[in-house]
Write a structure and sequence with these properties.
transmembrane, 4 helices, transmembrane helix, single chain, membrane, 104 residues
Length: 104
């Protein structure tokens, strides 16, 4: 019997769209939670970071054993995921690094 849900919502199937959507939506949530220009300290940013890690793992699942243009596109998506994760980790840890923001 076929499932009524689209492929994008089935976690057992590979979906590059789902993986990229998880990372980008969690990045937008992290920007909103950190109130970016001021970078407020909040531990709620851990949740978008974990969701982005799941999205990155889902992106890595889409890799193919042989090189093709699809494989190259997946590699670019992995780089995008890593950049988004780096920004979210910056939003998470920068407010706690008081030695960086102190003025003399």
């Amino acid at each position: 019997m076929a499932s009524a849900l689209p492929v994008i919502f089935n976690p057992r199937r590979k979906s590059l769209i789902r993986a990229n959507a998880l990372v980008l939506i969690s990045f937008l949530i992290a920007v909103r939670l950190s109130r970016f220009p001021e970078n407020h300290a909040t531990l709620w940013l851990v949740l978008p970071v974990l969701i982005a890690c799941v999205g990155t793992a889902d992106t890595i699942r889409n890799m193919q054993p042989r090189w093709s243009f699809y494989h190259g596109g997946v590699v670019l998506c992995i780089y995008m995921d890593l950049m988004a994760l780096a920004m979210m980790l910056f939003f998470l840890f920068y407010p706690y690094a008081l030695w960086l923001s102190s003025s003399r």
